[in-house]
Amino acid sequence: MSKKLFKYRKSASFNFKSKGVRLGWVSLRDVKTVKLEETLDEREVILLDDKYSPMLVP
Amino acid sequence: MLIKTRGYPIKFIQTHPVKDESDHLKSFVFKFFSTKNKLHYIIRAEYHKNDFFAIKFYAKKDRKSENKYSKVTNKGDVASILVSSAKAIPYLLKEFPNASFGFIGSRTIDTKTQKVEDYINNQRYRLYKYHLPQLIGNETFKHIAFKNSSAYALLNNNQEDLIIYEQKLKKMLIKTYNDIVSGNFTQ
Question: Quick check: B177 contacting A, CB < 8 Å?
Fold first, then answer.
């Protein structure tokens, strides 16, 4: 069997070291002003699972 | 995944008076030490009108940074740090049995790329939403999550009318912290 068969071959994508684009992340220079009052309308009441007893406060 | 850690013991350090005219009345400061990542942490429980505490915490080494609440140490031990910080709640309830509490997930800042995380549903908020229900029950608090501001509130069931109380808190927080979602980042 030829040794070449086991020779490691770099793939075309191997040279990219980027972790990818983080969705929603913006440059510090592009941070937009958002007011708290614009963000509080949508709320979700969290219902807790009774089978777990909370660790710190009942 | 269930929380298995019991966190670290916290130690009350002092109260800080607030001398401005805002609804923030004073701050209670605690500390703890992570034996895993060898960092000291500071917890600030900021007491406001309407019996409300905003809970904040940061690694002590970042105390002089304006971005201290947005930094990531990248040294792990996240669950223990969150459990330890939440221990301020039962401590404060002894003195303020009707108090409510709130967390706002700060937007993570990446100093290398000079980028900042989105304010909606950010990673700290996702941690709070996942972990706090395992630490704090609904016998004492009503849990409310605000995805669009990455905020999590624990409203004390001792309050007479929780709907009116929630409106009061919202009004107060908007008046005091209307810019908190944008953040105030320094490069």
Answer: yes
User: What ranges make up the beta strands (E) of B77-168?
Assistant: 100-104, 109-110, 115-116, 141-146, 151-156
Q: pLDDT: is B26 or A19 the higher one?
A: B26
User: E strands within B34-166?
Assistant: 40-48, 52-59, 100-104, 109-110, 115-116, 141-146, 151-156
Q: What is the ipTM of this complex?
A: 0.88
Residue of B nearest to A45 (CA): B144
The pLDDT tens digits for B148-182 are 999 999 999 999 999 999 999 999 999 998 877 77
Cβ <8 Å between A25 and B115: yes
Interface test with A, best of B138, B139, B184, B185 (most A CBs within 10 A): B138
Count of alpha carbons within 13 Å of A1, Cβ hemisphere only?
A: 4
Amino acid at site B177 = Y
CB contact under 8 A, B146 and A43: yes
Across the A:B interface, residue pairs with CB atoms under 8 Å apart total 120
Percentage of chain B exceeding pLDDT 90: 73
pLDDT mean over B109-120: 86
